[in-house]
Amino acid sequence: MATRPRGFGLTAEVNRKINEKYDERLEQQARSWIEQILGEELVSGEDQDRPLGMYKFQAALKDGQVLCRLINAISPGSVKKINTKGPNFLQMENIGKFIDACAKYGVPTTDLFHTAALFENTNMTQVVNTIHALGRKAQANGYDGPVLGVKESESNPRNFSEEKLREGHAVIGLQMGSTKGANQQGINFGKSRSITD
Q: What percent of the chain has pLDDT over 90?
């Protein structure tokens, strides 16, 4: 695949801002979680306690095989066939299968990355965010393996009686404002402003 041309102007500025948001601490958490679930090193020979960095992390995930095995370990059978060899479009197909499996598993579509974000290294921040979103959803769906991130919030509906709801209608909330201290002192209608009286 041809290399992506370097952007200029607004494109370069947007890419720079996206890359500045990349957090190696979050990448390290995601990497450790993946390695614990799969039981293997993401990049052999690298120090487990130090982040790989955006480019090495992208290279480790680029073909989509690790991501497909990850979702299959969390939710068996999510990806039926993982392409192990072949041209770029088969690698991109692996990434697409992972994204589809995450959506079916319950990861919100707003948390998912686009295939090009990983394959062409255009937004690795979103890739890391997707892995964290998958970790949260795995906890919410009862996955009993390693944990990534905080637990997803749960619904907590409030059920009030009709009597309690009627009491609320009688109260004037502070959002409506207050008339305390309000008066019309100093307001003149019809008199012109002049320097001398």
A: 45
How many Å apart are CA 114 and CA 112, to the nearest integer?
A: 7
Task: Give tens-digit pLDDT for 40-92.
Answer: 988 888 888 888 888 899 999 999 999 999 999 999 999 999 999 888 889 99
Residue type, 85: K
DSSP states along the chain: -PPPPPP-THHHHHHHHHHHT--HHHHHHHHHHHHHHHTS-SSTTS-TTS---HHHHHHHHTTSHHHHHHHHHHSTTSSS----SS-HHHHHHHHHHHHHHHHHHT--GGGPPPHHHHHT-S-HHHHHHHHHHHHHHHHHTT--S---SSPPP--------HHHHHHHHHS--GGG---TT---TT--SSPPP-S--
Structure tokens at 84: 């192990």
Q: Which has the closest alpha carbon to 50: 23, 18, 14, 25? A: 25
> pTM to 2 decimals?
0.74
Give the other-Cβ count within 10 Å of 175's Cβ: 5
